[in-house]
Sequence to fold (960 residues):
Amino acid sequence: MDRLTHFDEKGRPKMVDVSEKKITLREAVASGIISMKPETLGMIMNKQIVKGNVLEVAKVAGIMAAKKTSDLIPMCHPLEITHVEMLFNPREADSCIEIESKVKIRGRTGVEMEALVAVSTAALTIYDMCKAVDKGMVISQVKLVRKSGGRSGEYQAKRF
Amino acid sequence: MDRLTHFDEKGRPKMVDVSEKKITLREAVASGIISMKPETLGMIMNKQIVKGNVLEVAKVAGIMAAKKTSDLIPMCHPLEITHVEMLFNPREADSCIEIESKVKIRGRTGVEMEALVAVSTAALTIYDMCKAVDKGMVISQVKLVRKSGGRSGEYQAKRF
Amino acid sequence: MDRLTHFDEKGRPKMVDVSEKKITLREAVASGIISMKPETLGMIMNKQIVKGNVLEVAKVAGIMAAKKTSDLIPMCHPLEITHVEMLFNPREADSCIEIESKVKIRGRTGVEMEALVAVSTAALTIYDMCKAVDKGMVISQVKLVRKSGGRSGEYQAKRF
Amino acid sequence: MDRLTHFDEKGRPKMVDVSEKKITLREAVASGIISMKPETLGMIMNKQIVKGNVLEVAKVAGIMAAKKTSDLIPMCHPLEITHVEMLFNPREADSCIEIESKVKIRGRTGVEMEALVAVSTAALTIYDMCKAVDKGMVISQVKLVRKSGGRSGEYQAKRF
Amino acid sequence: MDRLTHFDEKGRPKMVDVSEKKITLREAVASGIISMKPETLGMIMNKQIVKGNVLEVAKVAGIMAAKKTSDLIPMCHPLEITHVEMLFNPREADSCIEIESKVKIRGRTGVEMEALVAVSTAALTIYDMCKAVDKGMVISQVKLVRKSGGRSGEYQAKRF
Amino acid sequence: MDRLTHFDEKGRPKMVDVSEKKITLREAVASGIISMKPETLGMIMNKQIVKGNVLEVAKVAGIMAAKKTSDLIPMCHPLEITHVEMLFNPREADSCIEIESKVKIRGRTGVEMEALVAVSTAALTIYDMCKAVDKGMVISQVKLVRKSGGRSGEYQAKRF
Fold:
């Protein structure tokens, strides 16, 4: 198993040196789930009442958060990301909403963290907008789905 | 069931008016879990190798993120939080780390989102610092544990 | 005419001292207009095509920008604003959209700048989202409509 | 007329994918006007009293805001801008100040929004610094003057 | 000697709990020095050439940085500061500029860090604006001059 | 001696145009000192009591601040820095801690300011975390140690 790359020889945290890495197209997809009461999901999805706005606001929040990743995660490099998109998949049978983000860059390091931050922030925004009616919502299964580009190459989550 | 408070009568998003709410001591506790390979947990916990730094960095990240909550979550009010603390509880049996945050304020609105943002960002920071050795880590069970203060009073998560 | 309050006796910029001002409920309303081609307005308003989303995104951007006011305007105090709301009024006859914001606080200084920043940023967001089809859009009439609260009392724009 | 590029096929907002665009030199010029009482303009311009500082502060605010564009405008890409400059042209006959910004980059997407954000924020800063003596100031004619670089090529505002 | 207040019993960093502290008027003054070549000082002070702008820009930077203190210093509380002012005192005999800041608040905790951040950032801004002609500038003697308010009461630096 | 590059012909501040500069590997090293009472240094270094955490938190703060440089220093360009590392060297004989940072980039302009901001913020963080026991700490000798890359080439501080 490799060394943890964010620590130098003496275990001190640092921002990994990517100066010598190649600029390539890199892509990452992350996903997560927010579970809630069936009534809450109904209120979110019922366009008559809330006009689908919870998910619109969550999407904007997720996209904006992806851009703040290096401001939130201490050892992340600031990156000129070239694309972010987010999908929301309501699953009535499980009374949850599945959130997926895709982030792209032409850069020296990957965008896994940007994709994960987008998913987490979108989920937290859904929590915030619905907490008056359902404080028991739970965010789960936040993970990297796949990544491509860069020296370490392709990654695909196993059970997905 | 109440109306979603972040939407006005026509379903348009707004930042809820808390001008008339009372200033009281409000407290929120949130928690979450990040699961990983046993080897990854071992590397984090093994002070010989990494000197416990992953959790130190994650703690700082969580505390700093709590202060950015209103910058991340669109409808959150900017708040002068008066306290943040974070606990990390490694659970070898489950090969995961449990993260808990507590946030306090004397203000007109609660700090649930601040506590949840702290937990999520700490978990994401652990992911970032260890992703070179374990891309399959998963963040789960991010939820509000309890809150107190304010008109809506005490909340305690059920299955906790 | 009073002295410019952001300058001290020698004309040096400073952040005005509001330590001795009273905490009162303060409110400000600002408005502005973004003019565009009739086709552009049609595309924004046509829910079949764009689902009203341009205005949803602009609203979120305006609310979030209000919270960043003291980060943008050098001499503005950081403030715990308690309410922001935004209205969009499409005026087909004039081929423009009128934007209005209302901001409230219980604090030591007013929220005029927060209301103006919200309107400006919402207008700029509309420009950004539609510039692929209409680079000639123009933002105008950005002004304070009224304010209340504080020592200087009520203000109401004349020609409004 | 083209599709609004910030929306995907189903009208959902996204950050446009510019991964395949070429890196070229791109430039944008924007302008705007802030109108005020003649006395206010006199106070700003009279170096004996305020030493030209209102415009100095506004210039710094505009330059700093250009760098925050992707943090303010939800669908804007984070960009390593290579140049910002601002000009202020007081027009006594019209009792207003004309503000102009120029922004440059070598990148995959244009800097129109950066130029517009710089002008708007400079105008808002002038408002903030003078509002103690003139709450009736109005910001108008905020628009893109010209842009160059990129696939869509040259743009020049018509009536300018 | 007291315990380091930013660490709990087990030495873990936390944001100190100030929920039970009283709201009082608190004030802090900090200062620092930036030393440079006599020619550099001459260029800064010579209004014919640079119109005093280096110090104007540094002043704006210092004031804006004071507002970002809780975003920079991990364990600082976010605070609604009510006043910031900055003074620059060029000392030709020592070929340096002395920088002083004063910050005020009515709050539960002091503003020492805000005053120190303002001084440091103003000094760094002077460095940045003059580094093309003098890379050897040195920032020194950054310290708290005095503070008042709060339980710990008055503090006055000894050798000042 | 050269002109101050942040001012145009009439002495107005601007962000220097680096559009035509070459992308090269650029590196900067900065350092600084924070002096304190021997007891304070002892408390920081005594792992039994504080587990080395003051320096861990200061390191994270310094790295995160380097990424905020263009947000703090008005005329700095936003940069995709590729590496930051920080070293702390406690000097018991002088009762101080020496702080050193190294920043790297492949870009059109240097990273001197990023290195200086990292050092300053780490020093301020040490002050913040220890100020309960030692308000008299002083930050000194903050300077550029060396830089390489770019047209102006190598720089090495003389008395170091």
